[in-house]
């Protein structure tokens, strides 16, 4: 009976070993698949790293471009201020001076020309010099 029990136990052991062999084969197949997947992941991560480096370079280029645009905008704003000052302080005043001088047109042409010409020219010159002085003061920071 002991031999019969031993035979039964050996038979059960054989079944367990066969099951274990099948499980080991399945495990080998799964490990092979995992190796392939890990290889694919490594390739993908390498590609991502290259893309991130390219993106970093592009962002740096954009930062440089934005700084250049900011500087250009500041220069443009300064030029606009200077043009506004010229229009406000010089051109508008000169137009007023010329218009005021033409109110005297009812006088004789000779009289009007004699009285207007020197005064208008001096006023235009004073307005121009006054505007230039304001520009210089703005550049050196004097209010």
Description:
The protein has 143 residues and is mainly alpha-helical. The protein is built from two helices and no strands. The longest helix is centred in the middle third of the chain and has 100 residues, at 2-101. It is rod-shaped and about 155 Å long. The model has no long low-confidence stretch (mean pLDDT 86).
Care to give the gist of this entry?
By secondary structure, the protein is mostly helical. Helix content is 92%, strand content 0%.
What characteristics describe this protein?
143 residues, 0% strand, mainly alpha
Write the layout of secondary structure elements.
Layout: H1 2-101, H2 109-140
Helix pairs in contact: 1-2
Choose one word for the global shape.
rod-shaped
User: What would you report as the Rg, rounded to the nearest angstrom?
Assistant: 47 Å
Total DSSP helices: 2
How much helical structure, as a percent, in the residues?
over 70%
Largest sheet: none
What share of the residues does DSSP label as strand, in percent? under 5%
**Extended strand count:** 0
Low-confidence stretches: none
Mean pLDDT figure: 86
H/E element string?
HH
Rounded to the nearest angstrom, the distance between the terminal CA atoms is: 120 Å
Structural class by secondary-structure content: mainly alpha
């Amino acid at each position: 009976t002991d031999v019969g029990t031993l035979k039964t136990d050996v038979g059960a052991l054989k079944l367990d070993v066969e099951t274990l062999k099948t499980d080991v084969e399945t495990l080998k197949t799964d490990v092979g698949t995992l190796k392939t997947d890990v290889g694919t992941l490594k390739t993908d991560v390498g590609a991502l790293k290259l893309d991130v480096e390219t993106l970093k370079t592009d962002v740096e280029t954009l930062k440089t471009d934005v700084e250049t645009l900011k500087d250009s905008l500041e220069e443009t704003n300064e030029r606009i201020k200077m043009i506004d000052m010229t229009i406000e302080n010089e051109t508008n005043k000169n137009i007023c001076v010329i218009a005021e001088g033409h109110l005297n047109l009812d006088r004789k042409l000779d009289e009007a020309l004699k009285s207007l010409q020197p005064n208008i020219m001096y006023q235009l010159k004073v307005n121009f010099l006054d505007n230039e002085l304001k520009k210089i003061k703005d550049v050196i920071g004097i209010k």
